[in-house]
Design a protein that fits this description.
284 residues, alpha/beta, Spore Coat Polysaccharide Biosynthesis Protein SpsA, Chain A, 3-stranded antiparallel sheet, 7 helices, 13 strands
Length: 284
Amino acid sequence: NSIGLRIIRLSIKIHDVKMLTFLCFFFYRNNITIVQQRRASSSRHWEPQTSKRKISIPSVPKARWQPPYDKSRYRFTINPQLCSGKAGRSFLVLVQSASRNTERRNAIRDTWASPTKDSFSGIRLGFVLGTPRKASLNDKVLREADKYRDIIMSNFTESYYNLSLSTVTLLRWAVENCAGYDYLVKADDDAFLNLTALRRYLSDKPKKNSIFGYLMRGYRPNRQPESKWYTPQDLYNKSRLPDFVSGFAYVITADAVPQLYAAAKDIPMFPLEDVYVTGMCRER
């Protein structure tokens, strides 16, 4: 049940997890529970598959390519020792979050990522944040980080168009600060993960050169100016996006993480983070 999409240079395969949404992940967005998704249609333009609701946006900043990731420009302002100690670390779970989403992080700590859960054995959990614009919010995050010791913060400004930068920061942190895990699980902070089912699913799957997730194949760039995911012709002029996995949650084998991070240091950043990391960087 996998797609043998082998790339010549990185040789990272994408595995289309057809039932993963049912077995392992339940996603909550706008109070809509998504249990199972249909295969991506090649005739549609790209937008998240978790809601059919129209999103009204008064003004959409124009997305632009950003320079490739330059390590010298960024540092970790909060850097917990998540991977210290001798306990097993089969999963490194890094949740992409925003400073204002305190309640979401607390919900994750209290539910699927709670240390009291049987599935927590062999798990290391961290939340990756940028720097908020409000100083008062930054102070609140500092107190949260001191309490839970699971906040990873870098000195880029939090913004929708910095999501690719946030994900590359996540990859960098894993490369520089953690070893000995089998899989990196990247998730949004509004996703609910069944780690027990995920562990069971991955038990007989490859542990090398693989990305597991919901495969988005043959999607067209979104050319609708009113859309949050608007991709103008001058930003991306090809008729199809590269094959990628949807960004709400995906799994990367440990050996592929440094390869994707290295690619991000060479490839200009595209604003759609899942397309950029699991599509463009993978193809590099």
